[in-house]
Inverse folding.
């Protein structure tokens, strides 16, 4: 049976991870002697925070920009990505909106995972508050607040980017400005 990208047995690190999970759950071969456990410490700063950024025309030969995001809980990075955008951005603002869209999609997924883990662990959810996503492009943030105004500068934006505004309206995210120097995704 194939396991993802591996055509044979799963790699040893995956097998070892599953052995630890089985043992801590009381299912391992030495479960009756298991004294170790995975734990989650409740800290005052256990809030999910995101940072989004784009680099316009990072690949000028192909007309592609770069998307980057970082998510942290406390001082721990839990998710990050830096990749070329699949769409050709027509402006630096357009590149930032594409980056924010990818960041918001990751944020929604992370919030669902955190809610599930905390719920199955008997901890209160932290997803009732909007997740703060920091962005350094003021125009992009203003468009998130006011909505995308169809005009000469924004008529080329795909309707899928309204997802960002919808998530803000649902109070799942809150986009705030940060300086470029303070942007962890920069």
């Amino acid at each position: 049976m194939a396991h993802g990208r591996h055509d044979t047995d799963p790699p040893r690190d995956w097998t070892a991870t599953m052995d630890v999970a089985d043992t801590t759950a009381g299912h391992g071969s030495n479960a009756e002697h298991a004294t170790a456990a995975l734990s989650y410490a409740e800290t005052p700063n256990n809030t999910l925070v995101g940072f989004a950024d784009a680099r316009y025309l990072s690949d000028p030969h192909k007309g592609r920009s770069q998307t980057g995001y970082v998510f942290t809980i406390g001082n721990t990075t839990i998710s990050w990505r830096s990749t070329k955008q699949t769409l050709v951005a027509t402006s630096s603002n357009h590149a930032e909106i594409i980056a924010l869209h990818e960041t918001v999609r990751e944020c929604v997924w992370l919030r669902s995972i955190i809610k599930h883990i905390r719920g199955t662990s008997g901890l209160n959810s932290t997803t009732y508050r909007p997740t703060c996503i920091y962005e350094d492009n003021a125009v992009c943030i203003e468009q998130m607040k006011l909505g995308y105004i169809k005009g000469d500068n924004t008529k080329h934006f795909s309707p899928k980017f309204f997802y960002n505004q919808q998530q803000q309206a649902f109070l799942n995210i809150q986009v705030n400005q940060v300086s470029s120097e303070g942007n962890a995704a920069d």
About this structure: Strands lie at 48-59, 64-73, 76-84, 131-135, 173-177. Confidence is low (pLDDT under 50) at residues 1-8.
